[in-house]
Amino acid sequence: MKNYFSSQFKLGILGGGQLGKMMLYDTRKYDIQTYVLDPSNEAPSKVACNHFTQGSLMDYETVLNFGRKVDVLTFEIESVNIDALETLEKEGIKVYPQPSVLRNIQDKGVQKDFYKKHNIPTASYEKYAFAKAVKESPQWLDNLPFIWKSCTGGYDGKGVSVVRTASDLDTLPEVPCIAEKMIPFKNELAVIVARNVSGEVKTYPVVEMEFHPEANQVEYVICPARIDETVAQKARDIAEKVSNAFGHVGLLAVEMFQTENDEILVNEVAPRPHNSGHYSIEGSFTNQFEQHLRAILDLPLGNTDSKVASVMVNLVGDEGYTGPVKYENIEHIMGMDGVTPHIYGKKETRPFRKMGHVTIVDHNIEKARTVAEKVKGSIKVIAQ
């Protein structure tokens, strides 16, 4: 085995946001030398890595030159220059997840085609060059409402809209997009699958996601999901099928719908640590960030079982506030049993910006969910 620990081995991370920062906590635990590239000089990861470079993740030369400094390269965001990753891979740099995997994920239209090709259940859809083309398609206007998604650039609920009337399309950007059938569902679920270079695979428990009705952002992640075991097994099986189809190295978060008749449909995937796995820091034997490192370094994968029931609450900027951040009433939630806040280190807040999260653990999932509600009602992310 290669000596990764207390050695000259170099790990590179494209993206310096909160996901990178939390991954770096585990590289510190193992004394792995780290390099981070991010466009912002105030990126949260800057304080946690050994070497920080400011630069564009979408610029070919910037990513290429950065990648040549490291032995293994990974990313915490999908919006990176894939051409540069492919060149680095040809030059012998280990890039995980592989550029070929990211090619099938970065564009949501390509991602949906991938599901269709591999017989993975997903909502019916059509691809369009721009939003106006959707308006000219009677199959959608005769079947309102439906879901509109931009093919690229969407994150944290951005780039997704519910189209209820034809005039709603007039407000959407003229970019490549997909129109997708709106599926009535009971629950939104997620499963994180880890795969190392040698092909060892481990799956985390199915989690349940509750979304903010307006921002289309996850508000709560509940582990384990409060669903029947037969449905949970179906979700795990489909997540593993998706994982096998991609053949990724690293983590793959698979977001799914549980329909009203208990079928499972894949919504989308993320080839990296994911918001639905943050609970694992306090709740699991092996948290998702350590697991991603184990996978991309071809180390044995850790135990994915939960030590305790967990609920994660996202801390996002309150509506009506923009400016230097203040976490009002954070001391109140820190007095609650089983509550652990994580502050990401972003200096400026704005409405619905992800600024941190709070994990609540308890042996009773319903008690944890009740405390999560209290946490949500107590802490406010406002501007000073």
From TrEMBL:
Give the pathway: Purine metabolism; IMP biosynthesis via de novo pathway; 5-amino-1-(5-phospho-D-ribosyl)imidazole-4-carboxylate from 5-amino-1-(5-phospho-D-ribosyl)imidazole (N5-CAIR route): step 1/2
Classify the source by domain of life. Bacteria
User: Where does this protein hold ATP?
Assistant: 108, 149, 180-183, 188, 267-268
Q: Which GO terms describe its biological process?
A: 'de novo' IMP biosynthetic process
**Domain ATP-grasp as annotated: residue spans:** 112-297
Question: One MF term in GO for this entry?
Answer: 5-(carboxyamino)imidazole ribonucleotide synthase activity
| One GO cellular component term noted in the UniProt record for this chain | cytosol
Instruction: Please list which residues make up the signal peptide.
Output: none
- The EC number(s) given in the record are 6.3.4.18
Extract the PROSITE patterns matched here. Answer: ATP_GRASP (PS50975)
Q: Which catalytic reaction applies to this protein?
A: 5-amino-1-(5-phospho-beta-D-ribosyl)imidazole + hydrogencarbonate + ATP = 5-carboxyamino-1-(5-phospho-D-ribosyl)imidazole + ADP + phosphate + 2 H(+)
Pfam name, any one = ATP-grasp
Alphabetic keyword roster = ATP-binding, Decarboxylase, Ligase, Lyase, Nucleotide-binding, Purine biosynthesis
Q: What does this protein do?
A: Catalyzes the ATP-dependent conversion of 5-aminoimidazole ribonucleotide (AIR) and HCO(3)(-) to N5-carboxyaminoimidazole ribonucleotide (N5-CAIR).
Protein family: Belongs to the PurK/PurT family.
Self-association or partners: how does it assemble? Homodimer.
Protein name as it appears in the record: N5-carboxyaminoimidazole ribonucleotide synthase
Phylogenetic placement of the source organism: Bacteria, Pseudomonadati, Bacteroidota, Flavobacteriia, Flavobacteriales
Q: Which gene encodes it?
A: purK
